[in-house]
């Protein structure tokens, strides 16, 4: 008898804490610095943008943070999410490996983003905030925050990277259906946007520019805060619900992962899946290889430098030590919009520097090939971002076929691709090009890093 296909948890088995990796690391990540004084930022520096509850989570040294009841209530709309065993993919590949994927596409936004959008909206509403601003790339984060805002009665205003705004009109409609307001970025609504448009009227935008616009508006209004969908510690903290559930689910079938792969844009779905397993690895209960997969067009971990840099293009955020391609780097408009970010989560960057994980880069045609193979076997059309993880999964499974190893491979299928079908159309028509950032382009990009 084949083992189960869907490994499910009941609602009562849903974890009630998020996990903070920091106290379990051999050293803490370097502090975030104020760009003017170059001193570590304090809570007061962040208070114009974030509620105190999230600022505390950003710097907490507690190992576990309880998930509020009001957040668990909303999580129950789609959590616990299923863990699937990819029997059909394994068979098609002819691999002795076992492939598991944690499917986050069952959420209201169709991705993992609501795992943090919901608590962020909750803590802001509890602090008396009326409006949230944010950026969005492919539109996943904007959709998630618009949904979360509707749950707690907050207005949500979103700047979407121009390239995605034009390529993916259905995300805009979804955001508006949830009650959000959306602008293409760069826009003429902010100083940051107007400055870019004056120099590049046809700018395709970038996440860094859209962040500058959203931060500018939040900083100018007392009733308005800013919400970030990735990169920061509190975002990765909220996403650990993914890995905590997956740990329980794998335990039900008696498996431990040998390899964990995930796609990295800012690092939140990857960290969310991997950190609870990294806790186990550091405690010696299992020993998985943990591998990040990034696009070859935006290779912050594999080709960027580990340095202090701004989180946004205009240089309005604090300085974070991270793997970066430079804050004014604008990646080629690949279809995986969520992976077009110049930097990497400081916590992931630190874990990478400590040698606790590895990273690879992939070009988009190989990834879409993997996405199509996955769709034809498992029946789910993946978002372009997790096709990067699937390409690495398939690579690992085929390696196992050569060696005969029965490795257990775990990945996060962090979103479905139902609103990314035009990208599949391009791929199927043979109309997709690969983008790979050359070493010379990397050197040019990082030349403008701030001197710290
Ligand atoms: C936003 C997004 C990403 C990239 O963000 P991470 O913080 O790296 O997870 C990847 N996949 C999907 C489906 C997304 O929505």
UniProtKB/TrEMBL annotation:
Its EC number is 4.2.1.20. Signal peptide: none annotated. GO terms for cellular component: cytoplasm. Pfam families: PALP. CDD domains: Trp-synth_B (cd06446). It comes from the Bacteria. Its cofactor is pyridoxal 5'-phosphate. It catalyses: (1S,2R)-1-C-(indol-3-yl)glycerol 3-phosphate + L-serine = D-glyceraldehyde 3-phosphate + L-tryptophan + H2O. Pathway: Amino-acid biosynthesis; L-tryptophan biosynthesis; L-tryptophan from chorismate: step 5/5. Residues 77-415 form the Tryptophan synthase beta chain-like PALP domain. GO terms for molecular function: L-serine hydro-lyase (adding indole, L-tryptophan-forming) activity; pyridoxal phosphate binding; tryptophan synthase activity. Belongs to the TrpB family. Tetramer of two alpha and two beta chains. This is Tryptophan synthase beta chain. It comes from Paractinoplanes toevensis.
